[in-house]
Amino acid sequence: MAKQHVIPLLAVDGGGTKCLAVLIDEHGNRLAQGRAGSCNYQGIGREAAAQEIRLAIETAIKEWVVSQENQQKQADIEVECAVFGLAGLDTEHDRGVLIRLVREVLTSLGIKVKHLVVENDGFAALLGATGGKPGILVIAGTGSIVYGINVHGMTARAGGWGHRVGDEGSGYWIGKQAIISILKAEDGRGETSRLGDRVISHLGLATPEALFNWVYGSDYSVEKVGELSRLVSLAAVEGDTVSQRILSMAGSELYMGAKAVIDKLGIRQSAFKVVLQGGVLQNDVWVHRVLMDQLLQYAPLAVLDSVENEPIYGVMAMGLSHLRKLRLAHSGEEERGSPSP
């Protein structure tokens, strides 16, 4: 019978852009990692999300197996604690869907897990960014959400309702506004801008009518619309007023989310950390400036903190905390079960 190999921790950060799986020892050292694409089931569907999560974990496991001298078989692996920070977990219904999805993926890979934790990726990123101290985390990538925590450990969120009814200020939202502006200009209801030619050319189309057909066709996706935000940023830098207006609106939308969280936590008059993450806020100076200008006017004691840690560090921190608690509880049970001297 093959020897059972136990890995202390599996941490998975699954967002709207990529999925990263990391195997970790009890000291927080990385043993192996695997990467895959977007795994937000709300955007790409349940089966596609499961496939990406599986690919990331499988890649990490294979890397770890290669590093082992005995070439341990994948089916002989047990994980003490697995923590998933996943985009798309916004309600208790989502939690149920994603817990079932994760269990199915782990079972299909033959990986036994003693303790499983599934949380929203934004909550995990908040812990990684603030270290549990008072602060807010504004994320604007393909989607958007704001999380916060106060000195009492109370948490709050705003946004993150998905691309159909929310994600204001995100890359998808910016791309969608670009498309709307192009079609309005075609009607004569809006201002003509550089966006029309750029977006239509980028998508390999010829006319605004073709753009309309693309929006309602099978090739349309959240990711492809999100990619258009880069074109808006370039046009804004070149002086395109429509693009500048879209980016200003994006910054204001993100500020409104931040303000809502600040008010819920009661930290407006306190010093707290502000962390900005996601491609939009890391790469677009226009959105970044509008957001911070409005936020600092409302909460002058807020301090912008540039965090270089990826969101996976928050998932890892959460996982290590759970692992320590599990081991302490297990140690206590063993002591209670030991015979008296």
Please, could you describe this protein's structure?
The chain has 341 residues and is an alpha/beta fold. It has two domains: 5-126 and 311-337, ATPase, nucleotide binding domain (Nucleotidyltransferase, domain 5, 2-Layer Sandwich); 131-304, ATPase, nucleotide binding domain (Nucleotidyltransferase, domain 5, 2-Layer Sandwich). It is built from 13 helices and ten strands. It has helices spanning 41-44, 46-67, 92-108, 121-130, 171-187, 195-202, 208-215, 222-227, 229-237, 241-265, 279-283, 285-298, 312-337; strands spanning 5-14, 18-24, 30-37, 77-86, 112-120, 135-140, 144-149, 155-159, 272-277, 302-304. The strands form two sheets. The chain has a five-stranded mixed beta sheet with strand order 3-2-1-4-5, sandwiched between helices. It has a five-stranded mixed beta sheet with strand order 8-7-6-9-10, sandwiched between helices. Helix 3 links the parallel strand 4 (77-86) and strand 5 (112-120). The radius of gyration is 22 Å and the shape is globular.
